Amino acid sequence: MKTFVVGDIHGRRAQLAALLKALPRNETSDTLVFLGDLIDRGPDAPGVVSDVIELQRENPERVVVLRGNHEQMMLDFLDEDSRLWLSPATGGEQTFQQYTASPLRVETDEDFGNARRRIEESVPLEHLEFFRQLPIYHEDDYALYVHAGLDQGKHPRETDTHHLLWTRDTDFYKKYRGKPCVFGHTPTTFLPLLGRLGRHGIYISHSAIGIDTGYNYNSPLTCLSLPDFTLYQSFADGHLATHHITNFIPEELRAMQKAAGSA
């Protein structure tokens, strides 16, 4: 049994389809985990959400989808009148236009109210209900899986939701030594230099494993397979890459590999 963990997708539907097709995943025994941030920035957020919903519907026991801070921002926009999702830095403007087929224009309070109504009318209820029921973390024999990181090494069940969705804690990145934790949220180019693994682009420091390898045109969409530590990546130009990582593997996972005879 393996776990395939996919980093932040951000609307890159074609890259996701190519990546999933490349994975040697046994759908009856292997688990597929998405770390959240299905939406915003990329060219087809609604398509990504529809595809992931369908994947989970077909195999609910083996497909796990976590909530990311971008899904949370959309929900906060609808539920709490938060305007953060509409900030140009979030990429929510692209998702707004993709769902509503109209450009985002927010200059007045009336514009804000109109934008809210457009999203409520345009986003399929199935998508919103899906976002609302997404878990904040997952755990299996191999690792913990969260969107952003842990609070001072505490288990996710002991950590508040905001921290799991939003943290950018340098101490976690550099010093965490608990059960291996796979996270996204912060592109690895912004993580401490010492843990970045060459051309692969992922981050490993002790037990912290970052797999958000960015969202510009040249950035791969990344999936890490556990416990074998094989990396699968798809690129916007259509090419694929696979790397079997042998260095810097967390000790707990290395022990599992040896026990399974896969080291």
**Strands in their spatial order, largest beta sheet:** 3-2-1-9-10-11
CATH-assigned homologous superfamily of the domain at 3-68 and 137-243 and 250-260:
Metallo-dependent phosphatases
| Beta-strand segment tally | 11
The number of helical runs is 9
Oligomer category: single chain
Shape: globular
Helix content: 25-40%
Mean pLDDT: 93
Structural class: alpha/beta
Low-confidence blocks of residues: none
Terminal CA distance: 15 Å
Strand content: 15-25%
Largest beta-sheet characterization = 6 strands, mixed
Q: Give the CATH level 1 class of the domain at 3-68 and 137-243 and 250-260.
A: Alpha Beta
Rounded Rg: 18 Å
What is the H/E string?
EHEHEHHHHEEHHEEEEEEH
CATH architecture of the domain at 3-68 and 137-243 and 250-260: 4-Layer Sandwich
CATH topology of the domain at 3-68 and 137-243 and 250-260: Purple Acid Phosphatase, chain A, domain 2
Report on the structure:
- The protein has 263 residues and is an alpha/beta fold.
- It has a domain at 3-68 and 137-243 and 250-260: Purple Acid Phosphatase, chain A, domain 2 (4-Layer Sandwich), CATH 3.60.21.10.
- The protein has helices at 13-22, 45-58, 69-79, 92-100, 109-122, 125-133, 161-166, 170-175, 251-260, and strands spanning 3-6, 31-34, 63-65, 137-139, 144-146, 181-183, 203-205, 208-210, 221-226, 230-234, 240-244.
- It has a six-stranded mixed sheet.
- It is globular and about 60 Å long.
